[in-house]
Each structure stands twice: as structure tokens, then as C-alpha cells.
Amino acid sequence: MKNVLDPSQNRVVIIGGGPGGYEAALVAAQLGGDVMLVERSRAGGAAVVTDVVPSKSLIATAEVMVDLGQAEELGIRLVEEDSDGQPREDDGRAAVRADLEAINARIRRLAGAQADDIRDALATAGIKLIKGTGTLVGDRRVDIVEENGTEYTLDADTVLVAVGAHPRELPTAVPDGERILTWTQLYDLTELPEHLVVVGSGVTGAEFASAYNALGAKVTLVSSRDRVLPGQDEDAAEVLEQAFRRRGMTVLSRSRAESVERDDDGVVVTLADGRRVKASHCLMAVGSIPNTEELGLDAAGVQTEDSGHIVVDGVSRTSAPGVYAAGDCTNVMPLASVAAMQGRIAMWHALGDAVSPLKLRNVASNVFTAPEIATVGMQQAAYDDNRHDIETVMQPLQTNPRAKMQGITDGFVKIYARRGSGSVLGGVVVGPKASELIMPLTMAVENRLTVDQLSASFVVYPSLSGSLAEAARRLHHRGG
């Protein structure tokens, strides 16, 4: 017999503790809600435990390897020492290798520390963290099954569903956690793969291919499209693919993987045209599936797409009164930053605070490859359809003095602006730390600044951000 807990005023029940869930919980608590957060794993959810935090930690390590690889060009010699600590008389180059067991151990520690920090922040805010699962069973009623087996039902004024997504698996390439892997299983590896085949050239596939290539693994990237990152800016994708090939990565374009099978000492990836690629490991990066099955959405009147994604509006409302949704389980951009904003917007709306609907045109995103690709606002496809109303400029980083000092040869800044007014509509940054450089363009898009206002701002000399101002100046129209 389940106990039914009486609702208190402004009771908020959140199912899922990832960015959408925990950020919503903190806002709800700040606004005086009685907040209960249900999470089956650790605070922070998959984004912290197996996805964003671990993957970006791995990539940060790989960035160091990329920098070391460029040291020779900057005049830095890495020398090996003999047993007496003296430089060896050889070519003056030291062998630098990645200790994947140590790297992954550090990643797991970082993820655990971040989960603990989020848990502590939730506790400090007075939020009750329930370890278990939640299922919708009617009008804002949630059945809870705790990890210890305790069951009860919560009645709520507001429910937020933020259950995330999991890696898509193909029946002909079933992950085993040893040789055939999803991105959540990489952090148990103790040795660097001798040859890693990455199936899927979207953001996830490109990021891991880039990272493992930098760490020293032989990498083959299998792309079913004619280029890597088919959803990104074409110029940016071309720069990245050229960088991949220059660093020794094999990119198989227009190649679809039919199956992946284990053999005695590795895997065999069979392509649709009959080619077979033999390797030590295979990473499947073929998309994700929302965790919305067996959640009681139909019974609660929550509309979903055929894919299982929850349909939400600009303030994160679902089709069921009082039920909101955020994150990768919704039909909105699958980004941690978007999930967090969706969750915050949901609580601001539900609890009566001032709120503006989510504006996807203002969302900045980043691909954490080497080089990075950051984008915001209008992109190439929209420009191609509106060339009479929009103008653009692309400024190569090669001409930037700071880039020359740092040995940066790949990258550019691109700005889209409205013809006549000069309002900044969007932009692309390709280069090291593009995720940091995109911020001025994001501010410009958000606040409808013009290229003249952007270029009139002082920038440090020399700096990579100087290329943003230079690109904006090239779009200047003489007044009067």
C-alpha cells in the first residue's frame, strides 16, 4: 500500500537531476518553492557523470597533447634524459605518451567532485534530493520508487520532467563495454586504443575522434555524409576536416557502417559497400534516444513526437497543465546550456516570476574539437536564402598577430549582419578556445548590437579577439 503525501503550497517535483533539473530546482527554491528532486544516479545526472563533464575533461587533456605537438614549431625542444638525468645525444625529441588509465581516473574524480558540489548546493538551498525514479500517474501526481525500495506518491503544484537521453544503439553493432563502446563507456578503458574507429561524424563523433587522435591513437572516422559535421558551418567543417587529415586521421566520407563485430583481438567494422575496417576498438556515436519510455507521459496527457521527445513551448510547458519539461528529452536543441535555461524558464513561469520565452536564435554552441567551432545566431544556410538582405565577412586567424605568436594556423571569424542597419545576426568562430571567443558575438546578437558598435569596443592588442573587431570593421558602411 503506497502512502500519498499531501501537497504543500508551491510544491515542485522534478524528475531528473541533470542541468535542466538541478538548475530548475535551485531557481524554484530561490522563489520559495517546496522542491523535491528525483535522480536515479548522482546529482548532475548523466551530463556530469558520463557525458559533458567527462568528455570535456578528456578533450582538455587532449588539448595539452595538441599544444605539445606544436612545441617544435615554436622553438621548444623536448629532450629525453638518460639514467643520470643528462640529455641524450639524439634528435632532441622526447616521446610523450598518454596514460589513459591515469587520464580516466582523473576524469572520474572530476566528475565525482562536480556531482558532490551540485549535491551540496542543492542541500544548502533546502532541496530534498531523492535517489530513485519517478513516474507520472495523473494530474501532477508522481509515483516515487526510492533506491531502497520505498514507494510513495507525491502530489505537486508543478512537475518538471528532465530525464535526458541515452546513446542510440544499432542491432548490428551492440556495445559490449570492452571493444564496441558508447561514449558513456570510454572512461573504463585502461589503455589507449591502438586503432579506434568512430562511427558517426556529428558533434559527438568528431569530438572524440579529435581527442583520441591527439592522445596518440590511430583513428578512423566513418561519416555517412560527404563531410564531417554536416550540421555545422560548411567553411568551419572544411577547416576541421583538413586539420584531421593533416594530423593523420583517416576520414571515410559517404561511408555507412552496416555492422560492427568482435573478432579475436579487436573489432571489424563492415561498411555498406562491403569494405571492412579492422581495428582494436569502435566507438558508436550515432545519436541519442530520450529517456521517456515508461515515464507515464501518455497517462498524464503529455504530448511526444514519434521519436519520443517531449513537445514543449517557449516557456517549457508541455501539453499537460502544470507539467513542464527541459533538456535532451524535449524537442529542443540538445545542449546542456539550453537544458539549464529551459529548466530556469520553467520555474520562473510556474512560480510567477518575470520570464521571457527561450530564443533559440540567441543560443551559442560549441564543438570541442581541435580547432573548436563556435556558433551563434544566423548561419550559412539562412544567409544563402537571404543574400539581398544580409552581408557577411570571413576574417582568417592567420593574419592575427597573437595567432602568429602562438603558432595558430587554422581558423577564422565570420560575422553575419543585416544590410543597411548593420545589426549583428550571427557568427562563427573557428580556432583554439572558440568557446570563449564567441561571447562578444553572443552579446551582440542578444542585444541587437551593430557591427559598428562591436568594432568600436576596445580590444587588447595583441589578442585573438581583435579578429572579431577587425571583421566587424570590414562590414562598416560610411554614414551620411
Approximately how much helix is present in the residues? 25-40%
* Topology, number of strands: 23
Q: Please tell me the overall pLDDT.
A: 93
> What is the assembly state of the chains in this entry?
single chain
SS-based structural class?
Answer: alpha/beta
Main β sheet profile: 8 strands, mixed
Integer tally of domains: 3
Strand content: 15-25%
Q: Which stretches are low in confidence, meaning pLDDT under 50 for 5 or more residues running?
A: none
Identify the strand order in the major beta sheet: 1-6-5-4-3-2-7-18
Corresponding CATH architecture of the largest domain:
3-Layer(bba) Sandwich
Q: Gyration radius, to the nearest Å?
A: 25 Å
First-last Cα distance = 79 Å
Number of helices: 14
CATH superfamily of the largest domain: FAD/NAD(P)-binding domain
CATH structural fold name of the largest domain: FAD/NAD(P)-binding domain
Shape: globular
CATH class of the largest domain: Alpha Beta
Pfam families: Pyr_redox_2 (PF07992), Pyr_redox_dim (PF02852)
Cofactor: FAD
Binding site for FAD: 56, 134, 328
Binding site for NAD(+): 200-207, 287
How would you describe the overall organization of this protein?
This protein has 480 residues and is α/β, with parallel strands linked by helices. The chain folds into 3 domains: 3-49 and 106-167 and 289-360, 3-Layer(bba) Sandwich (FAD/NAD(P)-binding domain); 180-286, FAD/NAD(P)-binding domain; 371-474, Enolase-like, domain 1. The protein contains 14 helices and 23 strands. The strands form 5 sheets. An 8-stranded mixed beta sheet has the order 1-6-5-4-3-2-7-18. The longest helix has 25 residues, at 100-124. The protein is globular, with a radius of gyration of 25 Å. The mean pLDDT is 93.
